[in-house]
Design goal:
With 398 residues, the chain is an alpha/beta fold. The protein has helices spanning 38-45, 60-73, 84-95, 110-119, 135-141, 164-173, 186-189, 229-235, 242-252, 255-273, 293-299, 320-330, 360-365, 382-397; strands at 77-81, 101-105, 126-130, 146-152, 177-181, 199-203, 217-221, 281-283, 302-303, 306-307, 312-316, 346-348, 372-376. The protein contains 14 helices and 13 strands. It binds pyridoxal-5'-phosphate.
């Protein structure tokens, strides 16, 4: 009986490019690479010889993307991972052990707190929440076994900015590592390693890829603390796939253009919204009224001599959950899409999404209410975005 093709091993040399050189990266989907000898396999897997053997241990598309991210952060080392959360998990499992303690900013992305407080605690890594902008307390509250501090460059969703240089000094005195989640800033707005952070994570899912079609993360660091990272990445199976890496690398090519345009838009929008009677308060680090405006100016980058403050603007409606529902229902041109950093403007409602697990009193202490709406400003014209917000705000008066 005929069984069709007998030789199922692909012959790459049969796909001729006629001597042409492709101008774009290929996508290397191979789960495994052909080894010419046991010695070669052994040396490559032992990292004594460059090259690839098995996709989970490393592949060309991941390396190509990681190299670009490393350059953007001026880091000594970088790896990309299957999500922003796996990048944070990788930082912890590669650097800490049972008995170690982590100080968490009380303004963290909900899942990061959950990772520490319900998952890693079962492995003996304990953690506690602190107000990272209360620098004296951070040092006083730190137990003797503290080994890591975790904070966000621009916090979600209240957009507070902490002094990273000060926290780096405190971490050093405590002999702990400072891990900064730089997702809301991206390296275009802030490079925490240059301010003294030891490790930086980003969710590439957000503005780094910027097209809303990939879930990925980045971990990068200065020298000296990297030794355990590659083996931890492969052993915990946190590697990102080739196609996602390829997409994210394509997105990254326009990061500077996207982030500078979206940040400039966000500043204009924040100024305009501050004057809208229907909106009770506007939080944006680029506004002089923002409590952390001087800190933001001191540590954020510039474009055409103008400081950049990111693309996120958070507004608060006095009418609470009910007002937020009306606003969201009337915002026909701004999708309620609980992510951020996409090409177009989107909005999210933290109390029903990213922060739904927080108790009411914690939300109050973070200044979050049912009326809090987080806008991720995109690349449309500022006039279009303002009109789209005005349309939603008009529904509040009626
Ligand atoms: C989305 C996000 C994460 C998690 O990233 P994923 O790619 O969704 O796993 C972590 N921190 C912040 C600030 C985020 O916005």
């Amino acid at each position: 009986m005929k069984r069709g093709l007998q030789d199922l091993c692909p012959k790459n040399e049969e796909i001729s490019l006629f001597g042409s050189r492709a101008s774009r990266n290929a996508i290397h989907t191979s789960a495994a690479y052909i080894c010419s000898s046991p010695d070669e396999a052994n040396l490559k897997l032992g990292r004594q010889l460059q090259g690839y053997v098995y996709q989970r241990d490393g592949h060309p598309n991941a390396d190509s993307l990681a190299t670009k991210c490393r350059q953007l952060h001026e880091a000594d080392h970088a790896v990309v991972t299957s999500s922003g959360m796996s990048a944070t998990a990788l930082a912890i499992v590669s650097q800490l052990a049972a008995g170690d303690h982590v100080l968490l900013s009380h303004r963290l992305y909900g899942r990061t707190s959950t990772l520490l407080q319900t998952e890693l605690v079962r492995f003996g890594v304990t953690s506690s929440l602190v107000d990272m902008s209360d620098y004296e307390s951070v040092e006083k509250l730190a137990p003797a076994n503290v080994r890591m501090l975790i904070v966000e460059t621009i916090s979600n969703p209240d957009l507070r900015v902490v002094d990273l240089r000060e926290l780096a000094r405190i971490a050093q005195r405590l002999e702990a590592l400072l891990l900064v989640d730089n997702t809301f800033a991206s390296p275009i707005v802030c490079r925490p390693l240059a301010l003294g952070a030891d490790l930086v994570v980003e969710s590439l899912t957000k503005v780094m890829n910027g097209h809303g079609d990939v879930t990925m993360g980045l971990l990068c660091a200065r020298g000296g603390i990297w030794e355990r990272v590659p083996a931890a990445l492969a052993s915990w199976g946190m590697t990102a796939g080739p196609f996602d890496c390829w997409l994210a690398e394509r997105g990254l090519a326009t990061l500077f253009l996207r982030m500078s345009t979206a940040s400039e838009n966000a500043k204009k929008i924040a100024i305009q919204l501050s004057q809208l009677a229907a909106i009770d308060s506007v939080s944006y680090p680029g506004l002089e009224s923002h409590a952390d405006h001087p800190t933001a100016i001191a540590q954020f980058g510039k474009h055409q001599d103008q400081p950049l403050f990111g693309n996120m603007v958070t507004i608060s409606l006095g009418g609470g959950w009910e007002a937020a529902s009306r606003f969201i229902g009337a915002a026909s041109k701004i999708p309620f899409c609980p992510s951020l950093g996409e090409l177009s403007t989107t909005l999210s409602h933290p109390v029903s999404t990213s922060h739904r697990s927080y108790p009411a009193e914690v939300l109050r202490s973070m200044g979050i209410s049912g009326g809090t709406i987080r806008l991720s400003i995109g690349l449309e014209s500022p006039e279009f975005i303002l009109a789209a917000i005005q349309e939603a705000a008009d529904a509040l008066d009626s």
